[in-house]
Structures are given as C-alpha cells and as structure tokens.
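User: Reviewer 2 asked us to show a designed sequence for the structure in our supplementary figure. I'm pasting the structure tokens here. Could you produce the per-position amino acids so we can include them in the response letter?
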C-alpha cells in the first residue's frame, strides 16, 4: 500500500507501508539542486523526506555565497530546524551541497546532534568535493552508499541513471 501525505512546504511525503525498513531522506539545499536529487531518491525508494532549515540568512548571490563558504570552511555549526526524528528510522539518507570542499554547516549540525546508526549520503557540487566523505565519516556511521553529482547537471540523463544506481545500491544493502 502506498500512502501520499501533503504537508506545508513539501512537494509530497511518501512512504510505502510494505517496506520492511523505514527510510528518511533528509537534506539541506540552498539553490534547489540537492532538493531535486532528494525528491528523486525519496520517490524511487518511497521514503519520507525532511528538509533541514538553516536559521542563518544565506540569501544573496554574493554575500550569501561568501558567508556560506566561509562558515563551511571553518567547519562550524549553525542553528537548524527539522521535523522528523531520525532515530525513528532504520535508514537515513542525507543530502548536502558541497561548500568549500566540505559539507554545509546545517548538515554538520544535524549529524552532530543526531547519532544516526545506518546512513547513506549524497551530495551536489560545483567544483571540488575534496573533504565531503571525510566530513561525513567523521560525524556518522560508515555509509552503505554514496553519490556525488555536479550541481548544474542534476537533471541530465546521466545523473538520473546515477540516482537510480544509488537507489539500487541501497536496495541491495537493506531489505526494502
């Protein structure tokens, strides 16, 4: 049985009652690329979605970008809001854009606050995802699957295939 629930500020939240595992796709997205990938993954896996809201103002092409990169480079934390308790899920799939070669302060804060036992990661990037895996692994359990996509290409046919492969890798690792 497939149930679709409409919630404010979310395109849809879906979950499959026949799944053996409860899966949460949680993400932060400043420009929409990571959100797009999160929605695709949640749709394929029939998982629940939760968007992390960074309470620091990161708007603006220049000042927002510079402040965001600086905060990420310093590996700092930020104030965030999210709706779902990740500890109620068997698997949490976490998505982030790459800023200054690493994960965003909002995802760093989320991982620091929540001891997630089973995790998969995906990220979108512009140029250099140098420290992304190191950041993820320093703050959480070893991921069962990872995916990196160039931000401007997330809607390409190749990226769509890579998203499907990522989801198939997760299916092969867990009972869905």
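Assistant: Here is a per-position design you can include in the supplement:
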């Amino acid at each position: 049985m497939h149930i679709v629930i409409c919630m404010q500020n979310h395109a849809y939240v879906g979950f499959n009652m026949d799944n053996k595992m409860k899966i949460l796709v949680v993400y932060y997205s400043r420009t929409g690329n990571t959100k797009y990938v999160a929605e695709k993954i949640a749709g394929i896996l029939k998982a629940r979605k939760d968007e992390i809201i960074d309470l620091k103002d990161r708007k603006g092409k220049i000042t927002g970008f510079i402040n965001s990169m600086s905060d990420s480079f310093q590996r700092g934390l930020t104030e965030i809001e999210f709706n779902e308790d990740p500890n109620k899920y068997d698997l949490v799939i976490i998505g982030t854009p790459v800023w200054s070669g690493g994960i965003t302060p909002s995802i760093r804060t989320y991982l620091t606050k929540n001891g997630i036992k089973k995790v998969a990661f995906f990220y979108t990037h512009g140029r250099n995802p140098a420290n992304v895996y190191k950041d993820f692994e320093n703050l959480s359990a070893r991921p069962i699957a990872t995916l990196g996509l160039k931000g401007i290409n997330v809607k390409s046919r190749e990226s769509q295939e890579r998203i499907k492969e990522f989801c198939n890798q997760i299916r092969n690792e867990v009972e869905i």
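For the response letter, you might also mention the following. The radius of gyration is 15 Å. The domain at 2-173 is CATH 3.40.50.360 (Rossmann fold).
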